[in-house]
Specification:
The protein is α/β, with parallel strands linked by helices. The protein is built from 9 helices and 10 strands. Helices cover about 35% and strands about 15% of the residues. It is globular.
Amino acid sequence: MRNNFENVSSLVKKMDLHIHTIFSDGSVTIPQLLHVLKVKNLTLVAVTDHYSEYIRIKNRMFGIELVGYLDALKGTGLLKGVEAEIFGDGSISIPKQRSAMCDFILGGIHSLDGINFWRDLQPILNPSRYVERIRIALEAAMERQIIDVLVHVTWLPEAIRSQSKKLVTREWMKSLINTALDNNVAIELSGAWEVPNVEFVRLCLKQGVKVSVGSDAHTVKEIGNVVYPLKVLNLVKVNVEDLFIPKRKNSVIL
């Protein structure tokens, strides 16, 4: 039997599947996080710090540091994830064997051609071509079948962000969503960045692509911020079955 939105809302208000801590670029310690979860009554929660296996990237865990991170999460009841970097060629900052150590993997693109998607005003001379290259990179990354959830989809660099409605076409969305469907990848509704939009989420649900919910919190205050996801999910009348709910794995240290 399908669930109504009241059941969805009740579940979503208790979940946050995208939180960063002091292990990468967040300011939250694990004890602080556990305290906040009790105060806010959050029960389905994942820590998903940034990780890079191959090259050192500022504010990312590197190499063997992943083992210490996962060890720190043992016994907390928290789901263990990482946010992997997606590069311009579609490669990912975590190999498949390392990803098996986690309950699930987020994947996001944060820069392309030396232009950061946050706080970077460098001009982009051909915005349409640039956004098309983002799509190609995201689809190539999903086809590697390592990523479980694609995050901050449709978030663009500051120089072209105001053109998002024009640049992120319906065809662009459909192509990305079809690739997500083919590779069993969910799409995140971001509390922090308020993307993707209602049209994108409707297309996801129409195609059978699940939706994940995360705050992308980096501070104590941001934990559990799912105001935007709830707003969108209410508009599209989502069912519980449409939500991405990760399963715990018996992680093996490789």
